[in-house]
Design brief:
Length: 309
């Protein structure tokens, strides 16, 4: 399903304001440049097949791309049990029937022709039900903390107090070395299909990063370390007694490269137990996809004792 992601992303990057009404758009009379200048809400309501056909015009692999998009359309309907036929053998009539049933399921007008937003919703639902549960280190209800000079470590999932985090599915491992005088925060954030940071995607994206903090104090129970920056400064507190790992970020004394990066109040983030949250988060995405199963599949699951509503 990744080709859909890149096609939609490519259009989104090119979108500018335009005085074109989506209700009266004749896609065949538009140039690709005019199509790309439509507003996002206009593109979302256009018929997907017509949009892809226009984008494929004159392209070297245009016909192959259209065949692949049709295959993706059929396979997504198969995954959600709206059609049974192999994508290579399905008739136009059966494809339209399955498409109409899906549109009825989501409360849309049953035309048999998907809009761009419906095409994206279909692909994301099909991808979600096949999502693999990701396992990170750590089990139980406490953050894993080890402290025995000259080494201290902590592992968990970062969450921000009073605010949503852009990447809910994440894992942090903090290592502090007394002899070096530094702490290292090794982070892995996972963008999930249809998640907060990856709303148009249908696959995983892993983003690793490392931050460094200079140790300011080290006792038997607590380590305080800081990362100073012009825009922002962050204090790391690792407390073995309270089982807390805090990241307190405040505005720095200098300027920020981007407007809007200054904080109105200090931001407090902490490490939390990760295993149950990460499992539940993936399960919630899977359940959201399962809610778009065809009525006959939903009924069968209901009869087997697995309600999806």
């Amino acid at each position: 399903m990744e080709i859909l992601r890149y096609l939609v992303l490519g259009m989104s990057l090119a979108i500018m304001s335009a005085a074109v009404n989506a209700d009266t758009v004749d896609i065949q009379r538009l140039t690709k440049d005019q199509l790309n200048k439509l507003k996002p809400e206009q593109i979302e309501e256009l018929p997907a097949l017509a949009v892809f056909q226009k984008l494929a015009e004159g392209e070297k692999d245009g016909e192959k791309t259209l065949k692949l998009i049709r295959w993706m359309h059929v396979q997504s309907l198969r995954d959600l049990y709206y059609v049974d036929t192999n994508p290579l053998d399905i008739s136009d009539e059966e494809l339209r029937r399955g498409t109409r049933e899906f549109q009825e399921r989501i409360g849309a007008k049953a035309t048999g022709e998907l809009t761009m937003s419906q095409f994206k919703a279909l692909g994301q639902a099909a991808a979600a039900i096949h999502m693999t549960t990701l396992s990170f280190p750590g089990v139980g209800d406490e953050v894993s903390i080890f402290m025995n000079a000259p080494l201290a470590t902590a592992e968990g999932r970062m969450e921000i107090e009073g605010d949503k985090i852009a990447f809910p599915l994440n894992h942090h491992k903090v290592e502090c070395w007394q002899t070096m005088g530094w702490c290292f925060d090794y982070e892995v954030s996972v963008w999930t299909p249809g998640g907060t940071a990856n709303p148009d995607g249908s696959g995983y994206f892993v983003a690793p990063s490392t931050s460094m903090y200079q140790v300011r104090s080290w006792t038997n129970q607590e380590i305080i370390a800081e990362a100073q920056g012009d825009c922002r400064s962050t204090t790391l507190s690792l407390n073995a007694h309270s089982k807390e790992v805090l990241f307190i970020t405040r505005n720095g004394t200098g300027e920020c490269l981007l407007e809007g990066m200054k904080l109105s109040t200090p931001r407090v983030a902490r490490l939390a137990p990760s295993y149950k949250f990460n499992s539940d988060y993936i399960l919630s995405l899977q359940k959201a996809g399962m809610k778009l199963y065809s009525p006959r599949a939903a009924k069968a699951l209901q009869e087997m004792g697995f309600p999806i509503e």
